[in-house]
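Weekly structure sync, notes
Attendees: PL (lead), two postdocs, one rotation student
Agenda item 3: pending single-chain targets
PL asked that the sequence for the first pending target be pasted directly into the notes so everyone works from the same version. It is reproduced below exactly as submitted, 210 residues in total.
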Amino acid sequence: MPLHTTIFHDSKTEILVWKITESLDQLLLEATLNEKSKSRLNAMKSVSHQRGFVSVRKLLHEKYYSDFALYYDEFGKPHLSDGKHISISHSHDFSTIITSDKNCGIDLEMQREKITTIAHKFAENELGFLNTSDKNSYIRQLTVIWGAKEAIFKIRNEPGISFNDHIQVDAFDLTTKKTKAVLNFGTIRMNYEIFFEEIENYTLVFAFEK
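Predicted structure, written out during the meeting:
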């Protein structure tokens, strides 16, 4: 399938979303992988994960990058050879990348009822402002919170960060499509701007370090 969604957040930041309808074989015919990516792909046991991984390379191509322009540091964080910041996510039928001059992170999650059973593990501090009486809104809000914390974790990428203990998301309304968050971890105190969009039954969340 062609590119599903393009979001121009500002003049320096672009988000691309791909809806994965192709088979793995078809994606591989249309994507060029470097040797490290081939090794990572071959080590993946899930075809869904493999399709997500290769579809990200399709998104790179949309931005006129090849897989050879993408590399990962020792902590697994992706970087681009031209110095622009990049973050990557994929979930089931969608994949996404964000590229920016600003330090950024992105997460894409399917909205699922299962998230309500684990809310206490990652959103203990936020439960007080959530609308638990409306199950649909509750699931959507929890998915934003999870995505915000995942995006922040991708920016900092430091072992030991706890979603419950170290990252707190401010109260927000689903209609505003933005909020703020703070990371308190050891000597680190960082503030973040959080933005989110809903695409079909998925939540896309991206964060910027302030």
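Discussion points:
- The helical segments are 24-30, 35-43, 47-62, 119-122, 135-156, 163-166.
- The mean pLDDT is 96.
Action: rotation student to compare against the earlier draft before next sync.
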